[in-house]
Amino acid sequence: MKRFREYRTNQEVRDHYADVKLSAENFIYPYFVVEGNSLKEEITTMPGVYRFSIDTLLADLSETKLLGINKIILFGVVDNAVKDEKGTAAYAPDSLIVRTIKAIKAVYPKLIVMTDVCLCEYTDHGHCGLLYGHEVDNDSTLSLLAEMAYQHALAGADFVAPSAMMDGQVEAIKYRLSLAGLPTKILAYSAKYASAFYGPFREAAQSAPSFGDRKSYQMDFRTKNQGLEEIAVDVEEEGADWTMVKPAMPYLDIIARATAKYPKVPMVAYQVSGEYAMLKNAGQAGLFNEKQAFFESLIAIRRAGANYIITYYAKEFVKLWIA
Ligand code: PBG
After folding, report:
1. Pocket test for ligand 1, best of 28, 163, 268, 311 (most atoms within 8 A of CB)
2. Ligand 1, closest atom to CA 118?
3. Which atom of ligand 1 is nearest to the CA of 121?
4. What is the DSSP letter of 220?
5. 246 is catalytic
6. CA distances (Å), 205 to each of 33, 51, 136, 218, 296, in order?
7. Which atom of ligand 1 sits closest to the CA of residue 271?
8. Quick check: CB of 116 below 6 Å from ligand 1?
9. Residue 157 neighbours by CB under 8 Å, 6+ apart
10. Residue nearest to atom 12 of ligand 1 (CA)
11. Residue-range domain boundaries for the chain
12. Does ligand 1 come within 6 angstroms of the Cβ of 163?
């Protein structure tokens, strides 16, 4: 008889065999930025997550840095009044995100700053690309995404992360950045599924589509291999430096298969707003131990093969488990 229980005798023994580890460097912490001063407003659907103005974001970063988290990803939240059909505020040379990157880099030059590149937060219709009638037009969106990425790169972003799910977006951005001679890398949201789990984010970023849904560009989760095909094209043909699977927990199979196929390409998994809200709310309702549930979910994502995890829980995780 094989005595597996010898691996589990006591905490010390269990720790010895626990070969899946998470540290602060594995985390990418998301920030929502708004215009204004001294603002730090909690997002009702995501307890413990805030919208910051640039000044309060800078103050919060000192804590993030102290915890050893050295990567962040930025999302802009702009007033409806500045949104238009073409998402002009997304790629303006002095956009909210451009000013945020510059302010951060002036204080924390070594912090790895990533930015989300997508039009949905900036268009008055809340879709990720330009509309032609009621359809999102892939090819006319590409130059706008490339311009947005270029402005972020020029301001000092270390990574731009295209999340619009337009075909050719990585290539268009890569070309624009290389023409300009900018060193910014591309984290491709390659396998991004049309998911109910983005609900709380859309409330946080005020980016819900004003009609229809995102199923004509985000992936159908009823497909077995499309996620890997999307990753293959981004990595092998279009020039993505890092890749992503999103959401994380319901897609561990995709993370595992993709990292087995591309062991050298850094894999990011995004534990999205709905995953966070679900775990938080169940924890707060006393249905389970929140700290343990987050630990288990994040270790599972890492065990599947993710090198990095974007999670709203990053700071709390480090405070509770590492610091
Ligand atoms: C698009 C974008 C979304 C998220 C990240 N980037 C929303 C969407 O595609 O609907 C969702 C992230 C989350 O739910 O935490 N700019």
Report:
1. 163
2. 16
3. 16
4. P
5. yes
6. 9, 9, 20, 18, 28
7. 15
8. yes
9. 101, 113, 114, 115, 184
10. 272
11. 22-322
12. yes
Reading the chain (323 residues) residue by residue, the pLDDT tens digits are 999 999 999 999 999 999 999 999 999 999 999 999 999 999 999 999 999 999 999 999 999 999 999 999 999 999 999 999 999 999 999 999 999 999 999 999 999 999 999 999 999 999 999 999 999 999 999 999 999 999 999 999 999 999 999 999 999 999 999 999 999 999 999 999 999 999 999 988 889 999 999 999 999 999 999 999 999 999 999 999 999 999 999 999 999 999 999 999 999 999 999 999 999 999 999 999 999 999 999 999 999 999 999 999 999 999 999 87
* Joined tokens for residue 55: 């000044």
DSSP-assigned beta bridge partners for residue 41: 51
Residue range 22-322 forms a domain whose CATH class is alpha beta
User: What tokens appear for 231 in the block?
Assistant: 């990753």
**CA separation for the pair 233, 120 (Å, rounded):** 23
Q: Is 189 in the pocket of ligand 1 (CB under 6 A)?
A: no
pTM assigned to the model: 0.97
Which of 83, 174, 246, 315 is flagged as catalytic?
246
For the record, the structure tokens of 290 come out as: 């929140």
Q: Is the dihedral of CA 18, 68, 71, 298 positive or negative?
A: positive
